[in-house]
Every structure is written in C-alpha cells, then in structure tokens.
Design brief:
Length: 655
C-alpha cells in the first residue's frame, strides 16, 4: 500500500498508509486525542475527521479546544442540521447561500408557500433536537456534478451554486434523506451538537444584489459547552439593547426604506435635532481652532477624480458618472479632498497663509453593496465632518499634534473614552493599491510615528490599512455589534498636492509644494450618531437630547397656565422643552417620558403652581424632587453648557 508523509506542528514527520483519516492519525497519537478530535487541517485547509488522506502535507488535529476552527466545524454542522430540519418543516423550501464565522452561522432560504417566520423557529429547533437525539450519522461522499445538478434542478439557487463550482466531483453530505454540499468540514456525528440557538430572521438579497430576489436569512449559533452559549446569548441581549437601529426606531430618530432607496437614511425630527446640535457644535469648535468653513458642490467633473487617483483606486465604490450630453461627465463625489483643493488653488498662496485650515460638513456618496448596508453605520449617502490643512514641510508635526489635541478635546465633550490609536501604513508589496513612491511613504510614515512618540501616546501599527495616497492615524473603537470602526482619522498626503500642482510662495520668493493633512474629527454624521446611540443606549446627555425637558400638568385645565409659564422660561433659554397636555393618565405620561429617555420630566400640580416650584424626575431615577422653578431652569442651562459631563456636574453640585 502506498504511503503518505504527514508533517505535524512540531515539524516532526510520520508515515501513514494512503487513505488513512485524521481520526486514525489522532488515535495513533493517543486515545484521548482521538476522542477529542473534531476535524483535521491539511495544508491549512479544514477537512472532515473521516476523510481519507491521499497526499503528503502538513497536518493539525483540531479538537474542541481549538476555538476558531472547532467552532466553524460545529457551526457548519448546525447549519446542515438546520437545513435538514427546515426542509422537513417546509417541503418546498429552497436554499441559497450559507456562511459560518466567529459570530455564528446563517442560511438563506426561500419558499413560495411563505417564508420562515421568527415564530416558527422554535418548531424547527424541536425538529433539530429530534435529529440530534436520534444521533444520525452524517455521511460524506463524492458525487458527479451532473448528477448533483439533476438532484437540485428544482432549486434555482442550489443549481446556480453548483454550476459555479469548478470541479467534476463535488463532496456532498447526507443526513437521513437530506443531501447538501458546500461545507469544508462537519462533525462525524451529532453528539457534540447540544448547545445551539436559532436567533433571528432577516431579509437578504440573493448573492447580495438588490436586483435579485429577497430571501429569508436565518441566523443561529452553536457552542460545545453550555456556558459558552449562555455567555453569548447574554452578549447578544446587550447588543440588542444597544443596537442603534432598534433604538433609532423606538425613539423615532431615523429610518431607511429599501423601497425608496437602500442606504439612504431619512432623519426624523428627533434625529435631525441631535444631528443639528452636533453639526453646530463641531463647526463652532473648528472655527475656534482656526478652521475656515466652506460649502462645495456634491457633483464634480470626473476628470478631477482621475487626477486625484480616486477613479483609479476607488472606482468600485463610486457611483456611475453622469453624461451631461455635451462631453462633460459629472460624478457624485466619494471624497471631499478634490473640492477643498479647488478652494486652495482658487487664490495664489503665500507661506504667510500656512497652515491653511479648510473644513466642511461635506455630503458624499459611495456605492456600498446592498449586503453591506446597515442602519446608519453603512450608508450610500453620508455627511463627513471633513477638514484639510495645507502646511509647509516644517509645520507637519506641530499641526498633526494640534489636530490630535482638538480630537481629544471633542472626545471629552462627548464622554468618549473607549478607543485606541492605530498608525496605518501601506503594504509595500501592494503596488496596485498604493501610490508608488517609496521616499514619500517612508518619510510620511516616520513623521506620524515621531509625532505620536513625541506626544507619548500608545498606539499599534497596521500594515496595509493606509489610504492609497498616504499613511494615517486612525482612532479605532467598537460598535455595540462588536465590529471595529474607525471613529476619526488624520492622514498625511504628499501625493495630491503633486498631482494638482499646488504651490505657495515661500519666504525666499520661490514656489514650494505644500503638504496636505486630511482629517475627520467625528467621522460622518451618520456613523457618529449611530455610535453615540449605542454608547448612550439612546439615553442622550441633556445637551444632545432631542427633547431635554417634558412638562406634565396634573390637570390640563387647572395647571396649564403655570405649566406654559415654565415652558416659556425654558424655551427663552434655548432649552428644548415640550408640554404634554394629552388627555391621558399621569402614570402613562410619566412612563412615556421615561420610554423616550427624556433627561428631565417635570410634573406640575397644585403645590407647584402655588409655590413657583416644579417636581423634577431625572431619567432613570424613581424618585422626584421639588425645586424652585427658576433654579431648575438655571441648573438645566448649566447641564447643557457643561456638555452634561458627570465630573463637572458633580463638582457643581458640591460647590
């Protein structure tokens, strides 16, 4: 019998008979490893435990303790068992794409007899448990592609997936009468599949294209141990509680309707108020720090983006150009930098003008694939808090530090503390993505690193995360969904000034090339507000809250005059206050104010009207306190002026 040589992680090499399995190899090492093994990894590719091995290669024995790979095998198995159970539940069910990752698994389904609803998941779970209890063995075999096409001829999605496979023989898995394919490895039997959960359903376009049919995506997860599942479900409950899409709906902040435009948010009055406050804040802050705010068009001649390099490097993320019929091609801008370059080049510049700081709340459009769109975090239309500073070479490090100081000050006002700094460099091997100028890259990367070291800030370095035109400092944070997001960025750019032939007259009377610093302090309005919704859980600090005070008269007829008097005093101080004079019970009105997470609920009855006081209940507190009306107005003014920072508020209370 032919032999194969297998190389183990410790670089030892052993010979085995051709056709031996990973399970055989594991048992040859120890009985306990044979019992723990769930799959193999041959030349870095996951394989089933009982798959015959026919070639030399590197081998790893994957046990349940090998978290990432073992979880994938378990979740592959859970997806297979779900599919078998769902097919028995709905006989006409068709299956689209499926996927497993570190967050669980999903399977896309379709049915002419009605999609699977969330209410039906417990019934499918029960069918899965029956399959597992029967301990059905999963059989793996190879099937001719033509035979498989014939088997799935009535399922348009499976047929398409089979035809996309470039192989004559395709591995299939059989569970009772159910047959499926497209898994890299599954468990040999179902004993380990005990702790799983079907989580939710959602719509998903077939293969992520909005022109394709909408399928039903079923999400689930699975763990080897009960503790793992419990911890994950607890984490998911916290995520759900913070999910900006859910909170945005409940507080009536925004909505996105695919029927009128996927990835195009509509801001309701409450959400528009939050956005307006942030926009006014950041404009005032930037003006105070020496920025000149401008407005520039959202359309630009395509040639500008060809000059900048965006058309070459970013074309897939740009909308198609608009042919104006006279030879002019206009493009919805994906970036604001070429627009601000036009502002710079509109006048002759001198060294005395530098640093020249230009800023804008600039609307941009990017063609995000429909499958990537998510609430406010992934959209197709966005407004970036954008800024570009044009500096001389000897001003780079000082301006970089200054920009970072502004960024940290803004974070303090928003009470943002959980973030890390990432220096994003180019990948020298990726000559297609990155502008080819070694001297420029080495120089600019060393400048950023020196500035961070000089400030004594901790950071980590990431190769391949730079923009195509220069390195950058990214401020990284995590969303409630566990995804890492870039909250702010500062980028050095030697390339754009060169491409657009920007100059300034130096002290020596000669022309010199400026350097461009791109920066976004609070990202896009959309992404930043999504982030704030999640970190605040929708309970915005007073200065940001859409409604800061809600006044509730105990009796609309008896207490309306005084309630309106208090309302007028609040509004005279630019406090966003409203009067709840609905014909509803007091308890309902108070609960509604708490549900809407309004910072201050004020109740006015006989005592308050008589003594010029108000009964104040802060959001999240059970008790109310009586306060002098004028002093209450002053305290709210102070709360707003201090950006509702707890450290400042606590100090003021003590004073």
């Amino acid at each position: 019998m032919s032999k194969i040589k297998l190389t183990f992680p410790d670089d030892s090499v052993k010979e085995f008979d051709e056709g031996t399995t990973t399970l055989d190899v594991a048992k040859s090492i120890s009985t306990s490893l044979g019992k723990k093994a769930v799959a193999g990894k041959i030349n870095d590719v996951l394989v089933d435990l009982e798959r015959p091995l026919k070639q030399d290669g590197k081998i790893e024995i994957i046990s349940a303790e090998d978290k990432e790979d073992a979880q994938k095998v378990l979740r592959n198995t859970a997806a297979l068992v779900f599919s078998a159970a769902a097919k028995s539940f709905k006989k006409d069910l068709h299956f689209g794409e499926k996927h497993t990752n570190d967050d669980g698994f999903f399977v896309d389904t379709d049915s002419a007899d009605g999609q699977i609803s969330v209410d039906e998941l417990p019934k499918i779970t029960a069918l899965m448990n029956k399959i597992i209890k029967d301990n059905d063995k999963i059989e793996r075999s190879m099937m001719d592609k033509k035979e498989l096409v014939e088997m799935f001829k009535d399922d348009p999605y499976k047929s398409s997936l089979i035809n996309a496979i470039d192989s004559v023989q395709i591995p299939v898995y059989k569970l009772d009468d159910f047959v499926d394919f497209g898994y890299d490895a599954v468990l040999a039997n179902l004993k380990a599949l005990k702790h799983f959960e079907l989580l939710s359903v959602a719509g998903a376009y077939w293969q992520g294209k909005s022109s394709n049919p909408m399928l039903q995506r079923i999400y689930g997860t699975a763990f080897y141990k009960e503790d793992g599942l419990k911890a994950d479900l607890k984490r998911r409950a916290e995520i759900k509680e913070r999910d900006h899409r859910t909170i945005g709906r409940d507080l009536d902040l925004f909505f996105v309707d695919p029927e009128v435009g996927a990835g195009l948010p509509y801001w309701m009055p409450n959400g528009a108020t939050i956005r307006r406050v942030i926009e006014r804040y950041i404009i005032d802050k930037e003006v105070a720090w020496g920025y000149q705010h401008v407005y520039t068009p959202i359309l630009m001649n395509l040639n500008a983006y060809k000059t900048s390099g965006h058309w070459e490097h970013y074309r897939e993320d740009m909308f198609p150009p608009m042919d104006m019929g006279d030879g002019e091609m206009l493009e919805l801008r994906p970036m604001n930098c070429p627009s601000h370059i036009q502002i710079y080049s509109h006048h002759n510049r001198s060294y005395r003008d530098l640093p020249l700081r230009i800023a804008e709340l600039g609307m941009m459009h990017r063609y995000e694939k429909s499958g990537a769109l998510s609430g406010l975090q992934r959209v197709r239309e966005m407004t970036l808090n954008d800024g570009h500073t044009f500096v001389a070479l000897d001003q780079i490090q000082e301006e970089f530090k200054r920009t970072l100081q502004l960024m940290v000050e803004v974070y303090k006002d928003f009470d943002i503390t959980d973030y890390t700094f990432r220096l994003s460099y180019r990948d020298p091997a990726n000559t297609e993505k990155y502008f080819d100028d070694d001297e420029m890259w080495n120089r600019s990367q060393s400048m950023l690193k020196a500035a961070m070291d000089d400030l004594g800030l901790k950071y980590y370095e990431a190769e391949g995360e730079a923009a195509f035109y220069g390195p950058k400092l990214d401020v990284q944070t995590k969303t409630a969904l566990g995804n890492e997001e870039t909250l702010s960025t500062i980028q050095l750019d030697f390339m754009q000034p060169e491409k657009f032939q920007l100059t300034y007259v130096g002290a020596d009377g000669e022309d010199h090339r400026p350097v461009m610093i791109h920066r976004g302090i609070v990202s896009t309005m959309e992404r930043f507000i999504a982030y704030l919704i999640e970190i605040y859980k929708g309970a915005f600090p007073t200065w940001l809250a859409p409604t800061q005070v809600r006044i509730i008269p105990v009796n609309n007829k008896l207490h309306a005059d005084y309630a309106n008097e208090v309302l007028s005093e609040l509004r005279a101080k630019n406090i966003r206050a409203e009067l709840d004079d609905r014909d509803e019970k007091m308890g309902y009105k108070i609960r509604d104010a708490q549900t809407m997470k309004i910072p201050y609920t004020v109740v006015i009855g006989d005592e308050e009207s008589k003594n010029a006081t108000v009964s104040v209940r802060k959001y999240g507190e059970d008790d109310s306190a009586s306060e002098n009306a004028k002093m209450f107005v002053s305290s709210v003014v102070a709360d707003i002026a201090n950006y509702s920072r707890k450290d400042v508020t606590d100090k003021a209370d003590k004073d």
